[in-house]
Specification:
single chain, alpha/beta, 2 domains, five-stranded mixed beta sheet, 7 strands, 23% helix, elongated
């Protein structure tokens, strides 16, 4: 039986602590980093060769304007392309929650002007409620 579910071999680790990068192996067990250091390939149920690659933790994007996009792109796809694993929504001072249905058009027009989000996309995909959490509740299982 393998010691790790996954072993990432030979990666250049940048850990986010401002320490110099270093070459290392990483052992993952039950979805968590269990070891950083030299690990034999036979210790992993699956082995990925990360030679020539940077291995880094995911990033948290603290300032997004995904209030609308989450409705038609629940994975917030573009962030994942850049290594983002967590995002914060609704902290910008303007957005979609809380919004009364009668004010929905005004909120969408604000996003058209400031974020260049197409009005038709928002009209097709946006649900309005006084609580943003109520609107995105259906998507929580996907995220």
């Amino acid at each position: 039986m393998a010691d790790f579910d996954l072993v990432v071999k030979n990666g250049m680790v940048v850990d986010g602590t401002r320490a110099p990068r270093f070459r290392s192996d990483i052992g993952i067990k039950n979805g968590r980093i269990a070891k950083i250091g030299r690990i034999s390939a036979h210790q992993g149920a699956k082995v990925v060769d990360a030679g020539g690659q940077i291995v880094a933790p995911g990033f948290i994007d603290l300032h997004t304007h995904y209030d609308a996009q989450i409705f038609w792109d629940p994975y917030l796809t573009i962030s994942g392309y850049h290594g983002v694993t967590s995002v914060v929504l609704g902290n910008c001072g303007f957005g979609f929650a809380p919004v009364r249905p009668k004010d929905a058009e005004r909120a969408m027009l604000t996003m058209v002007r400031t974020e260049a989000i197409p009005l038709r996309a928002m009209q097709a995909g946006q649900k309005y409620t006084r609580r943003f959490a109520d609107a995105v509740g259906d998507y929580r299982a996907l995220l």
